[in-house]
Amino acid sequence: MVKIYYAYSYQAKEYCGKAESILSPDRYEHYKRLKKEDDKLDCLAVGLIINKVFGDPSLVYKDEKGCPKLKNGEFISISHSGGVCAAAVADNAVGLDIQTHSERDYLSLGRIVFCKEELEYLTKCGDTENSFYKLWCLKESYMKAKGLGFYLSPKSFRFDIAGGGIRLVSDDDKKWFFSCFDLSGLTAALCCDGTDEYTLVNIPLT
User: Fold this and answer.
1) Residues near 48 by Cβ (< 8 Å), separated by ≥ 6?
2) Closest CA to 83 of 54, 52, 46
């Protein structure tokens, strides 16, 4: 079972003056480098989630590829978008991505990250916006679960989501489980080794 803890970034605003005592040293240095208030609130909200779930901000660290890891042997994936921050925690490799929708040229962006078959699906599916975000979140969730992020080319694999299903097409022989769902109005995708069961847990920050 994957637990997905989520919170709203605006609730972290009252903690801005206490960021150094709340965040791990590495996350606090990152927090100080951020220029935009929204980015600072996202960073702080993630730190607060970690504190409330694990009780120790230093339990989470980043590996050489910049992917978050847990010192207790569990797996974690972090994502934030549109004022929502989330962390998926599991016993096996896990990847989570959430995205808020915005007006954009979906096909032009798709040409950068999607395979030919995915682009063809976008042009014919009749729901370009939702299909774009579903494919994008699935790709990011998989790259995160692999522990590679963008070290893995998003064009080196593809997803078939025709008919409402989710099928990974790649040379990966591991059995991955995928889910797409709504998280507080955002598109979300989960990739996990071993299970497709998850539970959502809201973490009030105030």
Assistant:
1) 7, 12, 15, 22, 203, 205
2) 46
- pLDDT tens-digit series, residues 25-48: 989 999 999 999 999 999 999 999
CA dihedral of 38, 140, 138, 46, whole degrees rounded to 10: -40
Contact 81, 98 (CB under 8 A): yes
- Note the pTM of the prediction, 2 decimals: 0.94
127-151: average pLDDT: 96
92 neighbors 75 (Cβ within 8 angstroms): yes
The contacts found for 55-61 with CB under 8 angstroms, 24 or more apart, are 57/22, 57/23, 57/24, 57/27, 58/24, 58/25, 60/24, 60/27, 61/24, 61/26
Q: Tokens 């032009």 belong to which residue?
A: 108
Residue-wise DSSP of 171-204: S--S-EEEEEEEETTEEEEEEEES---EEEEE--
Q: How far apart are CA 206 and CA 203, in angstroms?
A: 9
For residues 66-77, average pLDDT: 93
What pLDDT is recorded for position 37?
Answer: 95
Task: Give me the pLDDT at residue 103, please.
Answer: 87
Instruction: Give me the residue label for tokens 């979300």.
Output: 188
Q: What is the pLDDT of residue 173?
A: 87
Nearest alpha carbon to residue 142 among 174, 117, 112? 174
Token pair recorded at residue 68: 């978050």
